[in-house]
Automatic annotation (TrEMBL):
Domain of life assignment: Bacteria
Family: Belongs to the ABC transporter superfamily.
Membrane topology: Peripheral membrane protein
PANTHER family noted in UniProt: MALTODEXTRIN IMPORT ATP-BINDING PROTEIN MSMX, TREHALOSE IMPORT ATP-BINDING PROTEIN SUGC
Domain ABC transporter: 3-233
Organism whose genome encodes this protein: Pseudaminobacter soli
Entry keyword Cell membrane: yes
GO terms, molecular function: ABC-type transporter activity; ATP binding; ATP hydrolysis activity
Main location, first listed in the record: membrane
Protein name: ABC transporter ATP-binding protein
Length: 349
């Protein structure tokens, strides 16, 4: 079902944590709310769940205004980071619990539990207790318990963050498949850009209680709305150089390069992604630099280059070999250069 948030504000005392949130999540969509710690994303999710009241604004699920509706009547299922399983109940009892509360007859309940367990590959574990399961298995129980209710909306708060890296990657793809199969509208909160980029149909990036951009993962990467989004998405992060524009040239510290943008302007930040830069001979570069450090990352090499007082990271081939302090050139395409107003963070180009 579609979820609509309009002009949602939330304050705790004098502190405003969500400021004018407007967001429509389409029926069946997987929307990820992404942002740094404390940006207000969990609070936003908890308001949709009804676990937190709104200070002002409206929340609709489908056509129904649920702004003042109790959580249990909103028809949403929430999955938490902590799983929140009942330790004294078996897996089957945990999954069945929401149906038991609704007084669903036992036979129907058992069928639903088996169906949900099969979806998350837990059939063999139905008689175990949570303490006898791995983190990934516990998380699957929490998902099955959410699924069994057949809610209109899934709300997930960092559901994978307690798992180790390998399991997290595995559960990520399981979750993506599951959501696609069930087609249930999902709002998923994380501070992990990889989760956001891989899971989402669309990502809403928040900072300090304000949505910075809502777009597909590809658009966010290729066409960031502002300095914050540009710096938040990408690993290693986008390189930023502080300088000014004049006569079609961007000048910074000890370097300058043509950018083809007319007009004079101070306080400009140029952004170039490490993967868009190439190390060349000193005479062929658009910027002259020295090699500061080299790190072999397995399938690629990160070369940190020093230009006067500034540093720029280049993602180079795994076979790249340079000596420390070796003079080099750095080159990149015109289209790889993003320009921002340093003060407002607005994109100039
Ligand atoms: P994290 O990823 O760390 O959970 P977040 O983006 O989800 O961060 P929120 O949990 O939504 O952020 O918190 C946003 C801000 O609101 C934080 O500064 C937090 O301290 C504050 N906050 C959250 N809940 C309360 C509360 N019940 N009372 C007072 N302040 C709160």
């Amino acid at each position: 079902m579609r979820v609509t948030l309009s002009q949602i504000h939330k304050s705790f005392g004098a502190v405003q944590v969500v400021k004018g949130l407007d967001l429509t999540i389409q029926d069946g969509e997987f929307l990820v709310l992404l942002g740094p710690s404390g940006c207000g994303k969990t609070t936003a999710l908890r308001m949709v769940a009804g676990l937190e009241s709104v200070t002002s604004g409206r929340i609709l699920i489908g056509e129904r205004d649920v702004t003042n509706v109790l959580p249990k009547y909103r028809d949403v299922a929430m999955v938490f980071q902590s799983y929140a399983l009942y330790p004294h109940m078996t897996v089957a009892e945990n999954i069945a619990y929401p149906l038991k509360l609704r007084k669903v007859p036992p036979a129907e309940r058992d069928a639903a539990v088996r169906g949900a367990a099969a979806k998350v590959h837990l059939e063999e574990f139905l008689d175990r207790y949570p303490r006898q399961l791995s983190g990934g298995q516990r998380q699957r129980v929490a998902l099955a318990r959410a699924m069994v209710r057949r809610p209109s909306v899934f709300l997930m708060d960092e559901p994978l963050s307690n798992l180790d890296a390998k399991l997290r990657g595995h559960m990520r793809s399981e979750l993506k498949r599951l959501q696609a199969e069930l087609g249930v509208t999902t709002i998923y909160v994380t501070h992990d850009q990889v989760e956001a980029m891989t899971l989402a149909h669309r990502v809403a990036i928040m900072n300090k209680g304000v949505v910075q951009q809502i777009a597909t993962p590809r658009e966010i990467y290729e066409d960031p709305a502002n300095l914050f989004v540009a710096g938040f998405i990408g690993s290693p992060p986008m390189n930023f150089l502080q300088g000014s524009l004049s006569g079609g040239t961007f000048a910074f510290g000890e370097g300058r390069f043509a950018v083809g943008v007319e007009g004079d302007r101070r306080n400009v930040t140029a952004g170039i992604r490490p993967e868009d830069c190439t190390v060349t001979s000193p005479s062929n570069g658009r910027i002259s630099a020295r090699v500061y450090s080299i790190e072999l990352m397995g399938d690629h090499t990160l070369v940190t280059c020093q230009i006067g007082q500034e540093y720029l990271t280049v993602k180079a081939d795994k076979l790249a070999q340079y000596a420390m302090d070796e003079p080099i050139g750095i080159t990149f395409k015109d289209a790889a250069v993003f320009l921002f107003d340093s003060e407002s963070g607005e994109r100039i180009r």
